[in-house]
Amino acid sequence: MNIAVIGGGSWGTALARLLARKGHSVSLWVYEKEVVESIRLRHENAVYLPGVPLPKTLSATSSLKEALQNAKWVVFAVPSHVARDVLIQMSPFLSPETPIISATKGIERKGLKFISEVICEALRRKNTDRIAVLSGPSFAKEVVLEHPTAVVLAASDTRLAARIQNIFSTPFFRLFLSADLIGVQLGGALKNVIALAAGGSDGLGFGYNTKAVLITRGLSEMARLGLAMGADINTFYGLSGMGDLFLTCSGTLSRNRRVGEEIGKGVPLPQILKQMQMVAEGVHTTESAYALSQKYKVEMPIVREIYRILFEGKPPKQAVMDLMKIARGGEIPLKVKRTSSPGKGAAARGKK
Predict the structure, then answer these.
(1) What are the residues facing 235 on neighbouring strands?
(2) Long-range Cβ contact pairs of 210-218 (< 8 A, separation 24 or more)
């Protein structure tokens, strides 16, 4: 099978390696020329996944045309804030029937679009029938170490989903299937915002009690917004919701948790981001999440306070104290009116 993986960060490289080790011919598109040279000469992504040997069946290129010219399947793994630009550049080299598997976690700030919707628009596709979304608790480093990992694959076409499941599955990497494109994408994006809060709690010196509050109430916020947008609420209690949230809020490999920790210690955000090689999606997603909460009129106090810390200069400790002040009333949220049937919203919007 000829597969193109677009995006040579740690996650894209880990997926490319997994597929190549299964015997597929994999072409990895990488923006940075020094990474291309590292893979070609040493079979290693020395910048984003150092010390991990890559199979010789995995080739690297900085040309989208070269990466896509023989591809029967495409895995899309670039940061969400550059997704549309890269997709537009890919468009001339793709057939409308080529399946796209999105491994990008985020929400486009302009227009508040899910990545599946951005793919449809940028590639001028009428619907999401040939698009799938891969999400769930999965640090790239642990995938390449072949630690047992399970993720979720969301697709509206069950036959397509089953074929992708077969392409990716290994004894240590398993995929569970879902039809909830909205919920799976929303969970994968919003957990990064809650991870900023969890990291901030660590940076302020708070303990497990505080983190437990942030994780559980953060999950409630994710589920409330998801329900308002037409997602299946059960999705948020699975791998792409609770599973990914727990991993990102507690794992030492989490970039978003680490950014939050530095913020909690008082380090300015521009300084933190300048020192990072890889993208912390939560910073970009906070703007989108806050805007969605306003659009759908859903109370998301943790998201709101993170937005105020990042973009309005609010002191992190004051944000925590303000969150505690509003923590009253019933624990179980009131029902939120759906905008569409569960799991159908993104697909329906893609068919317009």
Answers:
(1) none
(2) 210/320, 211/249, 211/250, 213/327, 214/249, 214/302, 215/245, 215/246, 215/249, 215/250, 217/301, 217/302, 217/327, 218/190, 218/191, 218/193, 218/194, 218/245, 218/249, 218/302
Question: If you ran DSSP here, which 8-state letter would residue 45 be given?
Answer: B
Q: So which residues are the catalytic ones?
A: 191
What is the residue-wise DSSP string for 306-342?
Answer: HHHHHHH---HHHHHHHHHHT--S-SSPPP---SSST
* Rounded-to-10 torsion of CA 26, 143, 156, 338: -140
DSSP state of 299: -
Three-class SS state of 4:
strand
Does residue 188 contact residue 164 with C-beta atoms inside 8 Å? Answer: no
3-class SS of residue 111: coil
Structure tokens of 101?
Answer: 């598997």
Look up tokens 């929400």; give the residue: 107
Q: What pLDDT is stored for residue 352 in this prediction?
A: 42
pLDDT tens for 129-138 read 999 999 999 9
Q: Which residues of the chain have pLDDT under 50?
A: 334, 341-352
pTM: 0.91
Q: How many residues does the chain have?
A: 352
Tell me what the pLDDT averaged over the chain comes to. Answer: 92
Structural domains of the chain, with CATH: 2-179 (3.40.50.720), 183-344 (1.10.1040.10)
**Which residue in the block uniquely carries the two structure tokens 């994780």?**
215
Distances (CA, A) of 305 to 38, 211, 289, 328: 41, 15, 12, 17
Structure tokens, 296: 């759908």
Q: At what angle do helices 181-203 and 281-295 cross, to 10 degrees?
A: 120
Question: What is the rounded distance in angstroms from the CA atom of residue 223 to the CA atom of residue 236?
Answer: 6
Condensed to tens digits (0 to 9), the pLDDT of residues 289-306 reads 999 999 999 999 999 999
What is the model's pLDDT at position 64? Answer: 98
